[in-house]
Amino acid sequence: MIRICSAEDVSKGSVIRAEVDGTPLALVHGEDGEFYAAYDECSHASVALSEGEVEGCTLECWLHGSRFDLRTGEPSGLPATEPVPVYPVEVRDGDIYVSLTPSNGVTR
Questions:
Q1: CA within 20 to 30 Å of 64's CA: 53, 77, 84, 101, which one?
Q2: Which residues pair with 60 in a beta bridge?
């Protein structure tokens, strides 16, 4: 696990971009209070998911509106049909840590 930032740096319902060892991440504080990390590129178009909107446990791509479940990486609607990698997240002592091994087995 790699420390990304303080949990206070990501307000509830928001997303920030982070890069770890060349891997772009969208780090999300879901509306359910949990933290999530996804590969920061839509599987449909090469745009940053970190610029999208958080709704519940999903992140919407700003360009074409595909929404990805942050727990599974699966898209919930077109035009995206392929999942994005999602990564395990832990909060320890007020800091957010992420593993770069995708929890859903999807690689980029």
A1: 101
A2: 53, 67
Query: Taking Cα atoms as reference points, which of 23, 12, 13 lies closest to residue 98?
Result: 23
Q: In Å, how far from its chain's centre is CA 105?
A: 15
Q: Compute the distance between CA of residue 82 and CA of residue 1 in angstroms, rounded to an integer.
A: 26
What's the confidence (pLDDT) of residue 77? 83
Main-chain dihedrals φ then ψ at residue 51, nearest 5 degrees: -95, 5
CA dihedral 101, 104, 107, 108 (to 10 degrees): -110
CB contact at 8 A, 86 and 75:
no
Query: Per-block average pLDDT, block size 10, for the chain (108 residues)?
Result: 96 96 96 96 94 95 94 94 97 97 93
Please identify which residue in the block is written with the tokens 């359910």.
32
Write the burial class of residue 24 (CB in 10 Å: 0-12 exposed, 13-18 middle, 19+ buried): middle
